[in-house]
Amino acid sequence: MIGHVEIYTKDNCPYCNRAKQLLNTMNITFNEQKLDRDFTREILLSKYPNAKSYPVVVLDGFHIGGYTQLAERVNSQTRSSAVLLNESSIII
Predict the structure, then answer these.
(1) Is residue 5 helix, strand or coil?
(2) Considering its fold, how many domains does the chain have in total?
(3) Could you list the residue range(s) of the whole structural domain that residue 52 is in?
């Protein structure tokens, strides 16, 4: 199960929009922080110095990367859940 998600975004960012859409589609709640409204680049880089692009996705306090890493994590969780559901439906 995906934990607490915080996503740092900026305006006119297609990958930011994709990340938010993915989270919404999967009914995963998240806290969005927007550049120049909620934080500055300097603040973001002081917290997450390895952040190189937007969005910056933080899961349970740990920077996991951007959209691609988020999608991989969500897809991995979905596959794990599907396996569990399939295993629990096996009749002996």
Answers:
(1) strand
(2) 1
(3) 5-88
